[in-house]
Amino acid sequence: MLTISNRGLQMPASPIRKLVPYAEAAKKKGTKVYHLNIGQPDIETPKQCLDAVRHADFKVLEYSHSAGNESYRKKLTQYYKKCGINVTAEQIIITTGGSEAIIFGFMACMDAGDEVIIPEPFYANYNGFAVEAGVTVIPITSSIENGFALPPIEEFEKAITPKTKGIVICNPNNPTGYLYSAAEMEVLKQIIIKHNLYLFADEAYREFCYEGTHTSAMHLTGVDDNVILMDTISKRYSACGGRIGAFVTKNKNLLAATMKFAQARLSPPSFAQILGEAAVDLPDDYFDTTKAEYKLRRDTIVKRLNKIPGVFCPNPGGAFYAMAKLPIDDSDTFCQWLLESFSYNNKTVMLAPATGFYGTPGLGKQEVRLAYVLNTNDINAAMDCLEKALEEYPGRV
After folding, report:
1. Which of 235, 234, 187 is nearest to 215 (CA)?
2. Distance in angstroms between the alpha carbons of the first and the last residue of the chain
3. What is the pLDDT of residues 262-316, one digit of tens each?
4. CB count, 10 Å around CB of 5?
5. CA-CA distance, 1 to 23, in Å (whole number)?
6. Closest CA to 49 of 251, 227, 279, 281
7. What is the pLDDT of residues 15-45, one digit of tens each?
8. What is the pLDDT of residue 347?
């Protein structure tokens, strides 16, 4: 009998996408589905970035350098400088999406059986990347009651073992939207210094900060060899399909090791590197309008959620996600029921069950993640559906 590898069996299905068949079935019945389940921005990709791809003039679509086009990496140093991050082109490896940057980091920094600590709830695909690398995720629970703030340093200390090699932070956070403060980042700095750990910093939502300012892991002093920045153009420029990210570190040995992984996959996508390079030349105020729109959406959805009886939603400081606690028995059952058995004025809403964002079994049963990537009219219509659904749901508690 042919068998599937243990790795293949252990690879988790996406909690964000597993309900897609139910959404498709609902649409076939004629039900309109408001998609709040996935972080796909509806903002248009900047025209000058698309034009740069359309007008690219070459006769052979060649491999780029394995680290990415030198012209793009040099341009990126200008972008990072505006963010208060001083790096050279040689300290940047362009990746196939931010996902590959995370995988490269796990593969280059850790051996099979090593452990990485991640505050939960966390981006579900971290679990998948860890399975690919043979790494064990050790979750530390943050609470919706305090908005998912960084867990106390004592919780990290309790979780650290001789196998611990790093900590993963997503700032602003997916799925909670929490924006880690400068003080919290300093706490992480003290931990990685004390225990000689890597700090993997996923900063895909750097521009999406609504209160306070973003503190990058690359702003921390004295830990250049410990910090790995994992980045992407997907959310920043509404270019998810471009699949262009970046692996950034000042650790020379780590860069050399990671380059071998980059060489093994030959090169990152060519057309999207052209798009990403053009994006660096967008005007400095390009993001102001987008940020204002997302802040309006955030304010709208949080206000609506907290007005629904039995619902609690902390105000997220960044990204474009909100986590809400609902008066339900099981978020997986509820989210499927919304698509399979419920409609209000022939409409329903698609949410992501929070269970898939926790590493600790049993957590997130009453929580859902909502991506406010729709306009405010659609958000209000979606909240009308949710409010009615919670009145009718058989498993309401």
Report:
1. 187
2. 47
3. 999 999 999 999 999 999 999 999 999 999 999 999 999 999 999 999 999 999 9
4. 8
5. 36
6. 279
7. 777 899 999 999 999 999 999 999 988 899 9
8. 98
Mean pLDDT value of segment 8-18? 86
pTM of the model: 0.96
Residue with tokens 């980091």: 105
Q: How far is 51 from 275, CA to CA, in rounded Å?
A: 8
Q: Which of 172, 225, 234, 207 has the alpha carbon at shortest distance from 79?
A: 207
pLDDT in tens, 343-382: 999 999 999 999 999 999 999 999 999 999 999 999 999 9
pLDDT of residue 137: 98
CA geometry: angle 61, 67, 73, nearest 5 deg:
90
Contacts of 167 (CB under 8 A, 6+ apart): 116, 117, 118, 156, 188, 191, 192, 197, 198, 199, 200
Q: Are 273 and 52 in contact (CB under 8 A)?
A: no
Name residues whose C-beta falls within 8 Å of residue 356's C-beta, 6 or more positions apart in sequence: 12, 14, 15, 16, 18, 124, 364
Paired tokens of 110: 């850790």
Is the CB of residue 324 less than 8 Å from the CB of residue 81?
Answer: no
- What's the CA gap between 357 and 123, in Å, rounded? 6
Distance, CA of 334 to chain centre: 24
d(CA 96, CA 267): 8
Task: Determine the pLDDT at residue 16.
Answer: 74
Q: Are 278 and 170 in contact (CB under 8 A)?
A: no
| Mean pLDDT score of the chain | 97
Cα separation, 218 vs 393, in Å, equals 46
- Cα 354 from Cα 57, distance rounded (Å): 46
